[in-house]
Input
Amino acid sequence: DQQVKQNSPSLSVQEGRISILNCDYTNSMFDYFLWYKKYPAEGPTFLISISSIKDKNEDGRFTVFLNKSAKHLSLHIVPSQPGDSAVYFCAASEGNTDKLIFGTGTRLQVFP
Amino acid sequence: NAGVTQTPKFQVLKTGQSMTLQCAQDMNHNSMYWYRQDPGMGLRLIYYSASEGTTDKGEVPNGYNVSRLNKREFSLRLESAAPSQTSVYFCASSITLGLGETQYFGPGTRLLVL
Output
């Protein structure tokens, strides 16, 4: 049973436009959400996170939105750059378990 | 400051063979983790260690053992490899276990079991 879902395996966006990556979760006890970025042959690297007490967190070109009632979060990248081409993983944690549950990932391709 | 290092980078095993995947971190982190990544499955936690001397099972621990050798090193052992263990294995570390603690990942070990 996949508690964190990324239903789009891939996304293709033109350079300069907005990339929107989506993530849905089923466990209402999740209270912290993170996005990781992964290039081929490398380990994932932390990108941005959000606590369940917030609905938005922004860091430069990256913004994460959380809609708790819909159990949905999204990552917005504006403007998208070719170097953003990677696989993006959404992850969630529940405070009393201290473990991250990852989604299956979305491959983003930003073309010129 | 190398961060999280893993050895080997790539390994081919025959069914039934054993091997140990090594992981070390130089960030003085207390917590360490082992994940596997399979196509269409994301990253799944195999085992983790909240601190030196402690280990706990994750989501998919069957067929694996771990050792937290010291604060820096956390190894993953396959006693009798099976084709189902063909995967990419990632080690990670964080300052502590806790809400929102960022995990830092190594580059991965690609394992093929024939």
